[in-house]
């Protein structure tokens, strides 16, 4: 059983998306000019997809978006509600109500900013056999503004937290909010964690990423994201350990707490890179028949990590729990879990 931790100890900011998931035939993908395993942003031609899934297929709803996923997983492992507070932007519509209901059922304390004239962000999750194709319409999630964090009740929640986690995806939405949370963490000498999130963040949003990085105590990423960062920085790419060492050595506002990089590489060992060491943590390989869906494994890894980190556990325990959570999620469709968590420290 987990140690009891204080409510609101962890704050996350990200893009809240309602995942609308359904098993569909191949010609459904073709109708929307999509391929199996696509992960795309919706264009105008994709907009009818969400209504069609709800009306014509047995669609399931899930509170999605990268940070919200990670916090849900952390809550599942902690088995104690309202440890994590989540900020993001939704519309004023039915989907926002479903999203809030699902997130709260998972134990999250959600404080959505509501924009009346924009629909809630959605992600169509199209399952064809063992393939899973994603089509995301960020919609309201794109409209988050810093004044939401400056409302007294929300500011109190941010000030009250001991740990802060933000995805690189949020750099596309509202960098000033990220900088405000980062500055709060720095002023209070509390850990600020961030995720590289996707190669396109390093390719197209490097300026806000570099602005936030000096505040980052722990940076997460997978091999593709780390390579993209290295290429954008014109570093010699290829050696993940070397990229991690360079990431750790970049400028930091609080040099008394050296940065840590945690880089995942699928079924290969997770790398924990600190100033003077690189450690490997093996990943339990699953049999082919056990793998249902690898999507969401990265979010789950961070969720598992955070569940132990907010309890003050050692980094090796945090990483082992990250690996446990990712392994569990892979055996389930989407970023979902089943049963009680079985992580043993």
Helix content: 25-40%
Could you say what the CATH architecture is?
Answer: 3-Layer(aba) Sandwich
Share in β-strands: 15-25%
In CATH, the topology is named UDP-N-acetylmuramoyl-L-alanine:D-glutamate ligase
Q: By CATH's scheme, which homologous superfamily applies?
A: Ribokinase
Mass-distribution shape = globular
Gyration radius (Cα, Å) is 19 Å
Oligomeric composition of the shown chains: single chain
Task: Quickly count the domains.
Answer: 1
Mean pLDDT: 93
Reading off the top of the CATH hierarchy, the class is best stated as Alpha Beta
Spell out the helices and strands N to C: EEHEHEHEHEEEHHEHEHHEHHEEEHH
Q: What order do the strands of the largest sheet run in, or round the barrel if closed?
A: 6-5-1-9-10-11-12-13-14
Total beta strand runs: 14
EC number: 2.7.1.20
GO biological process, one term: purine ribonucleoside salvage
InterPro entries: Adenokinase, Carboh/pur_kinase_PfkB_CS, PfkB_dom, Ribokinase-like
Protein name: Adenosine kinase
Explain what this protein looks like in three dimensions.
With about 350 residues, this protein is of the alpha/beta class. Helix content is about 35%, strand content about 25%. It has one domain: Ribokinase (UDP-N-acetylmuramoyl-L-alanine:D-glutamate ligase, 3-Layer(aba) Sandwich). The strands form two sheets. The chain has a nine-stranded mixed beta sheet with strand order 6-5-1-9-10-11-12-13-14, with helices on both faces. It has a five-stranded mixed beta sheet with strand order 3-8-7-2-4. A hairpin with a 2-residue loop joins strand 12 and strand 13. Helix 3 packs across helix 12 and helix 12 runs antiparallel to helix 13. It is globular and about 55 Å long.
């Amino acid at each position: 059983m987990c140690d009891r931790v204080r409510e609101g100890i962890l704050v996350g900011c990200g893009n809240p998306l309602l995942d609308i998931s359904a098993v569909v035939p191949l010609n459904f993908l073709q109708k929307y000019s999509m391929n199996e395993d696509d992960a795309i942003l919706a264009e105008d031609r994709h907009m009818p997809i969400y209504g069609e899934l709800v009306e014509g297929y047995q669609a399931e709803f899930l509170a999605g978006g990268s940070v919200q996923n990670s916090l849900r997983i952390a809550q599942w492992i902690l088995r104690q509600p309202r440890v994590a507070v989540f900020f993001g932007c939704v519309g004023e519509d039915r989907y926002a109500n479903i999203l809030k209901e699902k997130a709260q059922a998972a134990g999250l304390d959600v404080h959505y900013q509501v924009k009346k004239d924009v629909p809630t962000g959605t992600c169509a999750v199209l399952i064809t056999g063992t393939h899973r194709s994603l089509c995301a319409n960020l919609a309201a999630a794109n409209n988050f503004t810093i004044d939401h964090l400056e409302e007294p009740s929300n500011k109190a929640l941010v000030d009250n937290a001991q740990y802060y986690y933000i995805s690189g995806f949020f750099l596309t939405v509202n960098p000033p909010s990220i900088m405000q949370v980062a500055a709060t963490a720095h002023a209070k000498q509390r850990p600020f964690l961030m995720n590289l999130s996707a190669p396109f963040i390093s390719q197209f949003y490097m300026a806000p990423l570099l602005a936030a990085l000096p505040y980052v105590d722990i940076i997460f990423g997978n091999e593709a994201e780390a390579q993209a960062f290295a290429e954008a920085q014109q570093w010699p790419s290829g050696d993940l350990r070397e990229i991690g060492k360079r990431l750790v050595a970049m400028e930091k506002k609080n040099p008394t707490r050296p940065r840590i990089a945690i880089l995942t590489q699928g079924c290969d060992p997770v790398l924990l890179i600190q100033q003077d060491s690189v450690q490997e943590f093996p990943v339990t390989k699953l049999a082919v028949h056990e793998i249902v869906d690898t999507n969401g494994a990265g979010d789950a890894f961070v969720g598992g990590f955070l569940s132990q980190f907010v309890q003050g556990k050692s980094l090796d325990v945090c990483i082992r729990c990250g690996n446990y959570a990712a392994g569990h999620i892979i055996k389930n469709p989407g970023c979902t879990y089943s049963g009680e968590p079985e992580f043993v420290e």
